């Protein structure tokens, strides 16, 4: 896992190529079908290109849209392994409906279907890492798919601009603070994909429960769940909440009222005895902010797993579930 983090910037050197490109017809609308780590690049794309009509689809089949809308879209079937059950199902339904499709995978069943049916596809490099660690090649494959040459060029600069060692100490310190607690990650709604990514890394790499939410919505509901910290409230109820640790992902480009909400929430939680750490998103542009933050999350979750004596690489419960569901 350590090598995966240190080598992450090299992913931005990879130049994606569309095979069967003569059969690919560009569209203005997209459906990105993928699960787990394979969907993370799609979520990041929506931060970088909020102007796009881009639907992230996690599940079987296709989104519940009118056929006329579906026909205007490209279905991007994205699975790092190429064998994700739900993504294969989405691709087959898209093919049955005659939609324009694109496959992104390292191999597996998806690539077999693409080659056999001469569907446009991008073959990801097989890096021997978990899908959640492959967001660099994943986002570059999507830039190629949507035809964003500017983003391809800008993202290639990350190969030399990102220095994972710069964030290791901070990540290790953060893991130490969180030990014995359950992380909750908060961000602005605009950066929800970053918070979700942090949460997934704590689950899969850190091997602990973790949760995420966004401001301002959580100010209207979720924070009420921690009312037990108010003096005079039931001690029994307080025991439900005292295991959480809050990580605030702040962005200098957040709406001024969101920035104010973060500050007030941090003061309120701290005064009530709830531990909070603020992480500033750093970088000259959105790409730098996103991926430097995710590298920090990688270090924090790596050390989180190690301090519990757990293997940060493997996902045994997921593998066991896959074997069981295959028998149903």
Shape: globular
Instruction: Tell me the strand order in the biggest sheet.
Output: 2-1-3-4-5
Mean pLDDT: 93
Q: Roughly what fraction of the amino acids lie in strands?
A: 5-15%
What is the domain total for the residues?
Answer: 2
**Terminal residue distance:** 33 Å
**Tally of DSSP helical segments:** 14
Helix content: 40-55%
The main β sheet shows up as: 5 strands, parallel
Q: What is the number of strand segments?
A: 9
Name of the level-1 CATH class of the largest domain: Alpha Beta
Low-confidence stretches: none
Features:
Rossmann fold; alpha/beta; globular; five-stranded parallel sheet; 328 residues; 2 domains
Q: Can you describe this structure?
A:
By secondary structure, this protein is an alpha/beta fold. The protein has helices at residues 2-6, 37-48, 67-70, 85-96, 108-117, 135-146, 149-156, 158-161, 168-178, 192-204, 235-238, 256-271, 286-307, 316-325, and strands at 29-33, 53-57, 73-78, 100-105, 121-123, 182-188, 211-215, 244-250, 276-280. The protein folds into 2 domains: 2-160, Rossmann fold, CATH 3.40.50.10490; 163-307, Glucose-6-phosphate isomerase like protein, domain 1 (Rossmann fold, 3-Layer(aba) Sandwich), CATH 3.40.50. The protein contains 14 helices and 9 strands. The strands form 2 sheets. Strands 2-1-3-4-5 form a 5-stranded parallel sheet, sandwiched between helices. Strands 7-6-8-9 form a 4-stranded parallel sheet, sandwiched between helices. Strand 6, helix 10 and strand 7 form a beta-alpha-beta unit. The chain is globular and about 65 Å long. The two termini are 33 Å apart.
């Amino acid at each position: 896992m350590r090598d995966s983090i240190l080598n992450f910037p090299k992913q931005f050197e990879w130049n994606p190529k569309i095979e069967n490109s003569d059969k690919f017809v560009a569209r203005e609308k997209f459906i990105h079908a993928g699960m787990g780590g394979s969907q993370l690049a799609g979520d990041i794309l929506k931060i970088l290109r909020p102007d796009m009509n881009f639907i992230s689809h996690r599940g079987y089949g296709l989104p519940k849209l009118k056929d006329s809308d579906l026909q205007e879209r490209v279905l991007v079937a994205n699975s790092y392994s190429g064998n994700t059950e739900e993504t294969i199902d989405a691709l087959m339904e898209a093919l049955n409906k005659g939609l324009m499709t694109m496959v992104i995978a390292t191999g597996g069943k998806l690539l077999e279907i693409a080659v056999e049916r001469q569907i446009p596809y991008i073959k990801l490099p097989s890096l021997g890492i978990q899908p959640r660690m492959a967001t660099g090649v994943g986002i570059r494959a999507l830039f190629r798919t949507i035809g964003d040459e500017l983003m391809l060029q800008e993202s290639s600069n990350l190969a030399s601009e990102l220095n994972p060692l710069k964030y290791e100490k901070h990540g290790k310190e953060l893991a130490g603070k969180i030990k014995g607690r359950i992380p909750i990650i908060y961000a602005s709604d605009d950066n929800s994909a970053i918070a979700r990514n942090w949460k997934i890394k704590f689950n899969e790499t850190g091997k602990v429960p973790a949760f995420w939410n966004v401001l301002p919505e959580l100010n209207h509901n979720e924070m009420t769940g921690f009312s037990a910290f108010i003096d005079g409230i039931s001690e029994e109820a307080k025991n439900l909440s005292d295991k959480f640790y809050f990580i605030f992902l702040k962005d200098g480009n957040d709406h001024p009222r969101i920035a104010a909400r973060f500050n007030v929430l941090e003061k309120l939680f701290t005064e009530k005895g709830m531990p909070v750490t603020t992480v500033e998103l750093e970088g000259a542009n959105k790409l730098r902010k996103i991926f430097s933050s995710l590298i920090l999350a990688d270090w924090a979750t790596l050390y989180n797993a190690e301090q519990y004596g757990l293997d940060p690489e493997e996902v045994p419960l997921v593998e066991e579930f896959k074997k069981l569901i295959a028998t149903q």
